Request: fold
Amino acid sequence: MTVYVLCFILLLVGLYGALTKRDLIKIILSLSIMGYAVNLMIILFAYRTDGSFAILVKEGSNPNMVDPLPQALILTSIVIELGITAMLVALAIRLFQQYKTFDITKIRRLSG
Amino acid sequence: MPVETWLIFVLGFMIIGSIIALELKDLLSAVISIGIVGLGVSIAFLLLQALDLAIVQFLFEIFALIILIRAFNGKEYHIQEPSKSHMIQSVVTVAVLLLILILSINIFRALPEFGKPIFSTAKHYIENAAQETGSANIVTAIILDYRAYDTLGEVTVLFTAILGALAILRTRKSNGAAGGDNETA
Reply:
């Protein structure tokens, strides 16, 4: 249970950053911290004690394998996170060109 | 040492690294310290026997570092904007998050114990993947055979995200070269 709680604390650290920081780059970093925590949590659910990796080997493969399904889903999730990060960075660069600042309290009015 | 002890060590390291990354004033240092968290996740995946994931996470970390440093380097703005610190806001946020943590401890008690998964779908995959798909690696068998439509959707999302990033970065004058190259305005 301790690992679950620690992983949840990591998620909360990311949430804290996203809620209190005023700098756009810090907010992007906080979002990626939350993504790491969620991915890690799902892989923690899949672990089986003394399990081996989910690859069949020739001589008498171990029947005690870790769960391969969450790993396949998280592989998709990691790649999508990269796309999200790239798009957020593009938005941040564009906002900087427009407002000359990364401080979200100074980005107030809409301008085209 | 059992896996759980190693995981607790790595997770503690990651929590400290993320707090440092969020509190540093210099943004370039913050981007580099976020690498602690990403590589920690990669090591944790290795400990949890998720080999494909560890490799992909490592690559993700390198790409994210390249994107962030390429985007924000060489400018005057890699120091955090000085802003009035709102102590009350931070204290209230930390208090609320601690409350959430304390209230959710019971949920983690209800979850299945670490090391004893209750998923049963995987049993079918583990027993039949070799005969049905001919792949020795069960994770790739799931990605590219059983759930190939998922992967198709993933590629579509990635493509759309990159198209979106290029459309956002495109300026009226230029024809929109590669991402991040034309932010000189």
Observations:
- Residues 2-54+62-99 of chain A form a domain with the Helix Hairpins fold (CATH 1.10.287.3510).
- DSSP finds three helices and no strands in chain A.
- The first helix of chain A runs from residue 2 to 20.
- The CA atoms of residues 55 and 61 of chain A lie 9 Å apart.
